[in-house]
Amino acid sequence: WNEPDLHDNMWNADLEEFIRFYGIVAARIKRRFPKLMIGGPAFCGLNEHQLRLLAAECRRTGAPLDFFSWHCYTADPAEIAAQPARVRALLDAKGFTGTELHLNEWHYFNADWKKLRSDARYCREVHTGADGINGIDAAAFAVSVLTRWQDTPLDLGNYYTATMLQGWGLFD
User: Is there a contact between 52 and 16 (Cβ–Cβ < 8 Å)?
Assistant: First the structure.
C-alpha cells in the first residue's frame, strides 16, 4: 500500500477509496493479530488534509493507527526537520497521542520529478552529478537533517536507500 496518494502509480483508485479500504482492513488485521503494529500508509509526502482524512476514518471505524508513515524528498533541511512536530500536533489533536511517527523514506532532492522520469540525460546527471542527489550537498543535507531530528518527536527515519537501487543509493 505504498504511496496511495500517488494516484495511478502505486494505487489505482482515488485516495478516499484507499482510506476507506485502510479503515476496514486495518481494523480486521488488528482484531485477528492484536499484538501487531498496524499503520502507514507511507504517503508520498506530508499532506495534512490527507492525514486528517485518515485519522477521521480510523476514529470512525476503530481502525488502528499505531504508526503514521510518510515520505519526504527535499533540499530544505528545515522543512524535513519541521514535519514531525506538525504531524505530532495534528495526531495529538485527533486523539492519536500514542501513534509513532515514521518518516520511512527521505532523501536529498534538488530536481524536477517530471523531468527526472522523462529525460534520461537529466536523470543521469541528477543521480551522478557532483551537486546531484548523491553529491556533497546531499551529504551535508543528511548530516543537517539527522542533527535537527534529535529535538523532534520523530520515532523512525529511513534514508532511501543504502543500496544501488536506480542511482538513489548511499553506496555505489
Answer: no
Cβ-proximal residues to 100 (8 Å cutoff; 6+ apart), any chain: 37, 39, 66, 67, 68, 155, 156
Instruction: Kindly tell me the sign of the dihedral angle through the C-alpha atoms of 121, 127, 130, 132.
Output: positive
Q: How far apart are CA 127 and CA 54, in angstroms?
A: 34
Q: What is the pLDDT of residue 172?
A: 65
Largest CA distance in the chain: 50
Q: Cell 519526504 identifies what position?
A: 72
**What's the pLDDT tens digit per position in 6-57?**
877 888 889 999 999 999 999 999 999 999 999 999 999 999 999 999 999 9
